Every structure is written in C-alpha cells, then in structure tokens.
Amino acid sequence: MKERRILDYIFITLKGMAMGAADVVPGVSGGTIAFISGIYEELITSINNINLSLIGIFKKEGIKAVWNKINGNFLVSLFIGIFISVLSLAKFLSWLLENEPVLLWSFFFGLVVASIFFVGKEIKQWNLGKITILVLGAALAYFITELPVSDNTDSLPYLFMSGALAICAMILPGISGAFILVLLGSYKTILDAVHERDLKIVITVALGAIFGLLSFARLLKWMFSHYKNTTLALLTGFILGSLNKIWPWKKVLETQTFGEKTVVVADKNVLPWAFEGDNQLMLAIILAIIGFSLIFILEKAATKK
Predict the structure, then answer these.
(1) Hey, which residues does 252 pair with through a beta bridge?
(2) Which of 11, 71, 102, 227 is the S-S candidate for 46 at Cβ 3.0 to 4.6 Å?
(3) pLDDT tens-digit profile of 30-86?
(4) Is 33 a domain residue?
C-alpha cells in the first residue's frame, strides 16, 4: 500500500466524486474519469487483490495485513467520493440532462475527446497491430451504442448477469454501465426494485456486480501486466467509439418512462443547425473547450506534483 498523506486521500475522494458524477450520466463511464485522473491501474490492482488468499493472510498476519493487501485506504476514500457524488450530484445532473442536455453533453464531449489523446499517448509503441486493435475497439463501442433496447425482464439469473455486465462496463473507459442496463432491458426492473425495496432483486444484482467486478478486474490486471500497449489501444478505441453516444445534438426517436424517470432509448445524431430546439451553439462550443482543456490542466498539475 502506498504511503500517502491525508491531503492525498482527500484528492482521491474528489476523483471518486468525479467518477460518480460521470456514472450518473448515461453514456459516460466512470472508468474514463479514473483513467484520466491517473488512478485506473491502481483501482484494478486493488480490486484484483480481493480474493480467497486474503483468508490465509488474515489467519497468519491479521486484519492490518489484509487491509494493506487490498489497499483499503485508497478504496474506501474512492468509494466514499463515488457515494457522495451519487447522493449529492445525481439530482443536479439529472436536471441538467433533462433541461440543458446540449450543454451537458458538450462539456462531456470535450472531456472525452481530450481523454482519447491522453490515453493514446500512454501507448509507447505504435504499429499496425495496435492501430487495428484501436479500430476494432472503436467499432465495438460504436456497435454497442447502436444496439436496440431489449424488453424488460425480471428473471433472477438474467438480472445477476445484467449486474455483472453493467459493472464491467462501468470500469471500462468509454462504455456506460447505466446504458448497458437500458440495452439489456433490466433498467426498469432494477430501478423499481430500489424504489420498492425489493431486496431479492437488489441482492441478486449486487451479487452479480460483485462477481463481475472481481472476475473482470483479474482479466484487466492480467492484460495490463502482459499486453499493456495493446490494452491501452483497445481502451482508446472504446473511448473513441463512445463519442457516438455523447454527441450533443440528437433527434429523439423513442423514450421510455421508468418510474419517475424518462430515458431515451432511441435517437440519432444530427448537425447543430438541424437540431430541433435551442442548439446554444456558441455556449456549447465554449463548454466543450473547457471540458477538453480540463484534462490537460489536470495532467499539468499532476506532472508538477
């Protein structure tokens, strides 16, 4: 476990808040924020360390050794930030999504475009193979954003799988976990279960998420250890392909109401001047530039530190 000061953990909590804010918006991944804030590999490694070997460590060395093994201070600080963000910012971001979607998506579009450069420049060795992987990753992410939405289902095995897939998407840069739930047709069931305190469904989804998180983290950790540049090329492709989902100007084709929440399940991208409504072009461009610049400002600050 890294030696850190209290101030370092405060910054980790703030990064968690940024991840939580991104996950609230369907189409933006908290994994992207983790990557551009420099904590992605540490997060994957820490989650990967949660396994059955901890039982042996606990018996031999005690709880402190277990805590150090899983990088407990880091994980707690990060998840406190995510929890704070979801509770405090969810309502505000939902309001922006409903009332000022063009401005919100413009900011995130600039942020994500900059993150493509940020992640891409981490690749130390470019060749035809890396470029091919990047293109395939972009094509896969684009294909996912174009998939039709499935009918709602309440089968427990299906909900377990939905929880596992959604959490995997959530920690992958470029792919939104909330959007995966909408695609799978599980969004309404899970949202209703949370509102109605249906513990059977909530626990099933939570177990699926835990299973998905622990198993997928092992795969990502292995990929980073053995094929780091190839993995980075794939993740860069995922982020590039996800731009289709977060283009600010869209024509809504179909919506569905889940409880008190209305979710767009079908839309198509249009040019700003073909947008029906106030496209707020100049303000949207300014916010996209702010989002784009923010990534490089954060990188500069991190480099100086």
Answers:
(1) 267
(2) 71
(3) 787 887 777 888 888 888 888 888 888 888 888 888 888 888 889 999 989 988 887
(4) yes
Angle at 236 between CA 25 and CA 176, to 5 degrees: 20
Q: Are 204 and 160 in contact (CB under 8 A)?
A: yes
> What residues pair up with 258 in beta bridges, in sequence order?
261
74-119 pLDDT per residue, tens:
999 998 998 888 777 767 776 787 788 888 889 888 888 888 887 7
- When divided into structural domains, the chain yields a total of 1
Q: If you search the block for the tokens 């009332």, which residue do you land on? A: 99
- pTM score, whole prediction: 0.72
Q: Which domain holds residue 280?
A: 6-304
Query: Is residue 244 assigned to a domain?
Result: yes
Taking the CA atoms of 36, 41, 44 and 49 in sequence, report the sign of the dihedral they define: negative
The rounded distance, in Å, linking the Cα atoms of 215 and 186 is 21
Distance CA 175, CA 155 (A): 24
**Structural domain includes residue 1:** no
Instruction: Assign 3-state DSSP to the chain and report helix, strand, coil percentages, each to 5.
Output: 75, 5, 20
Is the Cα torsion angle 248, 265, 164, 65 positive or negative in sign? positive
CA distances in angstroms from 92 to 96, 122, 177, 295, listed in the order given: 6, 34, 20, 22
